[in-house]
Amino acid sequence: MTCVACGTATLDLPVPHPTQSMLSDGRISQRVLAKSRCPACGLIQHSELPDIATVRSFYGAEYNLAVETAPSDVSRSSAYADLLLARLDAVPLRVMEIGCGSGHTLRALAATWQNTAFVGYEAAPQVAASAKGADPRVTIRNGFVEDLLLPEAGAGFDMVFSINVFEHAADPVAFLAAKAAQLTMGGAIVIICPKSVPPNMELVFQDHIYSFTPEAVAALAERAGLVLIEHDPAPAGLGDFQLFVFSRDGQSAETASAASHDDFATYMAGWSRLDAVLSEALNDITGHAFVFGAGEMAGLLRAYAPATWGAVEACVVDDLAGARALGVPVKKLEEVQPGNCDAVIVATHPRTQKAIARRFGASEATILTFDELIAR
């Protein structure tokens, strides 16, 4: 396999599970997650790239990531809007978002840019339908940017942006070129997407076709007739994300990423060992086992540690709002009687697992974390 950004032969990474994987909305896929990494520019891609029809099939009627929005998602959208507001010196007349999901970011921008018209495109039809709101300045449509061969509605946009969409694109060059076709002269493209350095959870989603480094993005942009003029990490409060700004001309941003192939191989190998490590720990425990958490990490545990998940009686959470449907009951933590809890697997982001575990300090239950195996 060769890198789609620079043409270098890629190196395979360990497979996290031999028969299944997880999509970003939590659904289990029967596709094996096989990825490889470019040793030159650092791009990570599927070892066998799916065609555009396969990629689009991920976002059909079953896709539900943004249909029901938790309060935390609204807050995150506002934080993304603040990040975008800081990127333009002048108030834009027209703004387009690709992959607008629930439309919360567009509406947050509209609250500040009172005289701006907004258009959002969302690939999943049911999500697009749920996103339509009352603000006449915000128009939500169902579709893919690659299908817009001419500027939407016959006029260009001063800013075209996407948040956590670029990694899903079947063809990143075509994605960038389609965005560029929507720009006014002097317009800017802004992309926020997961960081790949250091390796983190974004690597283990089946529908993350690519994981980007600045070097890879600069090469892809050049092929799309664009210049990468800015690259920054997102604020720490948003997590492992990064921001790219493109224009048709300008000074190229400096790009550098410090990571070795071994870092990524070790990280993916950790996921491949997760089920065996947790199953062995549970072998010594008889009784009731619970998972603390019912969000993204719990979904990943279900996908990549299915034997462990089979021993779980229920998920327990502090707040039922935003809990995913993961095939087991979800209960509030306070509903679980101490005598009926023999083991708790902490399935939250690795950086919070130790703090969560300390909350169970007085419990007689065995508390299992895996942040030393999977650090991010």
Number of strands: 18
- CATH homologous superfamily classification of the largest domain: Vaccinia Virus protein VP39
Q: Order of strands across the widest beta sheet?
A: 8-7-6-9-10-13-12
Main sheet: strands, sense, barrel: 7 strands, mixed
In total, the number of domains comes to 2
Supply the CATH architecture of the largest domain.
Answer: 3-Layer(aba) Sandwich
Give the CATH level 1 class of the largest domain. Answer: Alpha Beta
Task: Return the string of H and E elements.
Answer: EEEEEHHEHEHEEHEEHEEHEHHEEEHE
Fraction of residues in β-strands: 15-25%
Q: pLDDT average, as an integer? A: 91
Walk me through the topology.
Blueprint: E1 11-12, E2 21-22, E3 28-29, E4 35-37, E5 44-46, H1 52-57, H2 71-85, E6 94-98, H3 104-112, E7 117-122, H4 125-131, E8 138-142, E9 157-163, H5 172-180, E10 183-194, E11 210-211, H6 214-223, E12 227-233, E13 241-247, H7 261-283, E14 289-292, H8 296-304, H9 306-310, E15 314-317, E16 330-332, E17 343-346, H10 350-359, E18 366-368
Parallel strand pairs: 6-7, 6-9, 7-8, 9-10, 14-15, 14-17, 15-16, 17-18
Antiparallel strand pairs: 1-4, 2-3, 4-5, 5-11, 10-13, 12-13
Helix pairs in contact: 2-3
